[in-house]
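FORM 12-B: Structure-to-Sequence Request
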């Protein structure tokens, strides 16, 4: 305790911050030692949004529960919420803090605060962490292709998951991938593969998604299935029925569905901010040379099977249950191999109309517009990597920009949601089984040629 000029003792104020998820001995020991350094302990608990923004995904407990964890220790004199980057300096000034305390895993990171107060790094308690308490999901990949490579790289930013193994019927392909990405196992032995993992990511060409998803579910493994999950309604229903029967998570890997800003967008649009929703207009085009998997009819290639999941996603989410009454119209153009290289779909659901454009051999503006009776929501290209959007109104001065966390390729939010759903024994939030089944049904209708008009090539 230091003495003030007027002779009265000034109390020493200590501050520390953390997530305090699934409270453990390490947290308690840190708080005890922090308390001993002064007379008044302030504990900052990170908000859910801030954790997401700083890339800490997969936190199990809500902010309220985590605050309660800290309160129950009886060590904090004041609990505050840490909501944004840069808040620490403001807190230190506002509360006249003398000592900033944090665990040694942050050594050096907060030296800049020494301009404002004393900075103390306390030795971290060994052998315990929230990450460890949440458990690690061992994940295996089926189909070592381009998307799987990006997936492995992004998974390293999600706590609680470890990609352990990769399967391909051609042994050498799996081995090469495992070596390149430093995975523990790569091979063509199915039984060995499934036994070494808790969950599977199916990243094969489209026509094999269902077969591998069902095989994995039968072995008791959770499944994350690349889009499109299935090419027919009944196949998609089989996948979800088997998952339900075994109490497992089955989720379609449409990364946009799980991006924080996209989830916000859907919530805002549904809450009436732009009035009644009149139309949804989404475009996704990708120019690629006319060869390879995407153009192979035997592998169910084509622009629609490749990209429709993206443009159908906002339509499915905004139409809700009404989507099953949809009237469909397709306009399509085929390429040399016979698959579609450009398709336009119109989905009419009561008073709501969805327009989706996809293309592999024609480029278009990749934006998303949701039009309403009182304004519209605009997401600039590439809207499927949603980081921000604008709510626009008749009077431009009433416009508003909304943003949320977006890091890397955006895959990490999908992986985090899959892992959280497994760990918490719940359904994924952001994409319902019913949405995936509906999208498979639309793809089925297109492949069957129902309501399809062809444009001359
Ligand atoms: N802490 C500690 N010893 C541990 C774990 C955490 O001293 N074994 C400290 C951290 O250094 C930090 C505070 O407790 O000062 C809050 O940390 P938090 O990030 O909430 O806990 P972790 O267990 O590290 O969480 P996670 O595994 O999710 O990163």
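FORM 12-B RESPONSE
SEQUENCE OUT:
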């Amino acid at each position: 305790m230091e003495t003030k000029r007027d002779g009265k003792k000034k109390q020493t104020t200590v501050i520390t911050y953390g997530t305090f998820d699934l409270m453990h001995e390490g947290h308690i020991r840190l708080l005890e030692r922090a308390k001993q350094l002064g007379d008044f302990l302030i504990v900052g608990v990170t908000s859910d949004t801030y954790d997401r923004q700083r890339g800490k995904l997969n936190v199990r407990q809500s902010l309220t529960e985590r605050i309660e964890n800290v309160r129950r220790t009886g060590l904090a004199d004041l609990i505050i919420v840490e909501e944004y980057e840069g808040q620490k300096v403001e807190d230190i000034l506002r509360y006249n803090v003398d000592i900033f305390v944090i665990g040694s895993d942050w050594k050096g990171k907060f030296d800049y605060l020494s301009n404002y107060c004393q900075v103390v790094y306390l030795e971290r308690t060994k052998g315990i962490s929230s990450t460890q308490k949440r458990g690690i999901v061992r994940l295996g990949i089926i189909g070592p292709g381009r998307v799987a490579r990006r997936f492995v790289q992004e998974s390293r930013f999600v706590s609680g998951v470890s990609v352990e193994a990769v399967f391909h019927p051609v042994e050498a392909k799996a081995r090469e991938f495992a070596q390149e990405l430093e995975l523990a196992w790569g091979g063509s032995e199915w039984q060995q593969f499934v036994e070494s993992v808790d969950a599977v990511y199916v990243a094969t060409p489209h026509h094999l998604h269902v077969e591998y998803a069902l095989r994995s579910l039968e072995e008791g493994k959770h499944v994350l299935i690349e889009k499109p999950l299935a090419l027919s309604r009944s196949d998609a229903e089989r996948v979800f029925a088997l998952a339900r029967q075994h109490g497992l998570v089955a989720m379609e890997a449409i990364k946009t569905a799980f991006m924080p800003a996209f989830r916000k967008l859907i919530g805002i649009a549904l809450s009436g901010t732009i009035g009644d929703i009149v139309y949804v207009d989404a475009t996704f085009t990708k120019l690629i040379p006319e060869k390879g998997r995407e153009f192979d009819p035997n592998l169910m290639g084509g622009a629609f099977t490749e990209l429709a999941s993206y443009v159908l996603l906002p339509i499915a989410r905004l139409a809700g249950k009404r989507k099953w009454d949809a009237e469909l119209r397709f306009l399509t153009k085929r390429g040399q191999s016979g698959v579609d290289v450009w398709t336009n779909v119109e989905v009419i659901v009561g008073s709501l109309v969805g327009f989706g454009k996809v293309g592999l051999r024609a480029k278009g503006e990749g934006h998303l517009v949701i039009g309403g009776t009182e304004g519209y929501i605009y997401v600039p290209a590439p809207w499927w990597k949603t980081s921000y959007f604008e709510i626009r109104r008749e009077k431009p001065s009433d416009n508003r920009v909304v943003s949320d966390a977006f890091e890397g390729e955006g895959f990490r939010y999908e992986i985090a949601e899959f892992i959280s759903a497994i760990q918490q024994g719940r359904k994924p939030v952001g994409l319902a089984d019913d949405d995936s089944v509906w999208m498979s049904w639309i793809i089925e209708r297109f492949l069957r040629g129902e309501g399809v008009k062809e444009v001359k090539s």
